[in-house]
Amino acid sequence: MEDGRTSGVRLAELIAALSLATDLGLGQPQEHVLKQTVIATRLARLAGFSPDDQSATYYVSLMALVGCVADSHELGRWFGDDNQIRSRSYQVDRAGMPMLRFLMGNVGQGESAATRLFLLGRFATSGIRDVAAGMSAHCQTTGAIAQRLGLVKQVQRALPQALERWDGKGGPAHLRAKQIEPSMRAVHVANEAEVSLRLGGLDVALEMLRNRRGSQFEPALVDLVVNHADELLADIDAVDAWETVIRGCAPLDAELSESELQQALETLADYADLKSPWFVGHSRAAAALAVEAARLVPLSAADVQLVERAALVSRLGGIGVSAATWDKPGPLTSIERERVRTVPYLTERILSRQPRLAEIGAVAAMFHERMDGSGYARGLNGAAIPPPARILAAAEVYQALREERPHRAALDGAGAREVLEREAAAGRLDGPAVRAVLAAAGHRVRRRPSNVAGLSSREIEVLQLLVRGRSNREIGESLFVSRRTVSSHVEHIYNKIGVASRGAAAMYAMQHGLIDAASPEV
After folding, report:
1. Tens of pLDDT, residues 463-474
2. pLDDT tens digit string along 227-255?
């Protein structure tokens, strides 16, 4: 059913958030694309672009390089860290012999001399073709995302030209000069200028523009930047790029309905999963599983929706990790593991600037947290992890186990169930969440026994921790109650089930299925 309720999220805010993910894929600091957009729109205005072209420049700039993740797998195969090679490419004029030397010089980064020599030979025969195909993949992906987000035709028309050049030596269509849309010509200048300005200062940025005048860039636009550098570039570090961009997008902006927001988040899910072939379709599948589990718990309708949307965007931060890491068939190094552990943080940062998206991002960022505090990125535990995040964590683990990875085969349903139940028994995943996920995945799951020996829900929670050898102090800390309260609960438990020791209590709990059923819900 079409949901026409407004979401509180503007199209400009969603695309500006997406640009923060693009920064990761480009190997640039956050707000590179936003600052580039400030420069591009200033330049469009100074150049006397038509009102329509000035309005389009915002979205063209925000979206121009979003398709960079489409060839991450191929770049990773040749160059190792795909984000790093994109970042380094800003150092060269990306055409002809300079670009060829750059590519050959970066083949096999981090590999042994023998491996690099082997890769160089292969790159000379098929690698160049891969890079050219990557241009097409980039442009096609950008166009598909723009269409799914409902951007106007004028913006859609310009976006496939992101890798073209004024001299016609770009791609994939080899357009030249004024065959390229005005908005994209301004973006070409702004993209390179922002990086050079940040890394080398104003003089370095202007020198770069002069050197590429008439080759990569339109001469008239370069002249405007050189002659009006103070107006266009000097204050760029002091500008609140987010606010400037959001205000400037007004002519083409609109508030998304709830159904439009849902479709947009599904687009972001697909975008994140493009980073590696091993994850294609993962985010949607995890979201579908999490939704069904949330309904079984049951959570409120609002929390069910929150679980789904958090699952859809939970891998956005993964764009900041190189494809070579995601595609690695062997063990990760300590540095690679640490980079993977930043994914939840990066996801939360991408979505943090807009209140509604920030709410979704906060839950998405918890999908690697664990009930015993052993997870990441914040090491949350117990009551600090809300029910939607507990469902998300269990659903993500189950879905990931059912998918093949470069270092392991996919587990069958029974194998995935065994892992989840083991994680719940160890106190890392929430027991009720695990049971809901398993039931949603089609497994037969025993319901929590009720009123066994008259035990209350709290007493069952205490019993589960008690039989695993936790002291009264540890139980109290886990359940956020005093040691005296725990002692009282233990006395009542022993009286109700007719035992006098932890070992006997453990036998009773296992006999009556209380171990599986009693994972703490706090």
Report:
1. 888 887 788 998
2. 999 999 989 999 999 999 999 888 889 99
Q: Is the dihedral of CA 341, 352, 246, 158 positive or negative?
A: positive
Question: Please, where in the chain does CATH 1.10.3210.10 lie?
Answer: 12-249, 261-377+384-440
Given this model, what pLDDT does residue 35 score? 97
Q: Using CB atoms within 10 A of its CB, is residue 382 exposed (0-12), middle (13-18) or buried (19+)? A: middle
Q: Which of 475, 103, 521 lies closest to 297, judged by CA?
A: 521
Dihedral sign for Cα 104, 107, 111, 117, please: negative
State whether CATH 1.10.10.10 applies to domain 452-517: yes
- Of 94-108, 426-440, 450-464, 467-481, give the lowest mean pLDDT range: 450-464
Q: pTM of the predicted model, to two decimals?
A: 0.82
Torsion of CA 142, 145, 151, 154, to 10 degrees: 30
What φ, ψ does residue 134 adopt, rounded to 5°? -65, -35
Give domain 12-249's CATH architecture. Answer: Orthogonal Bundle (1.10)
- Cβ count near 494 (within 10 Å): 18
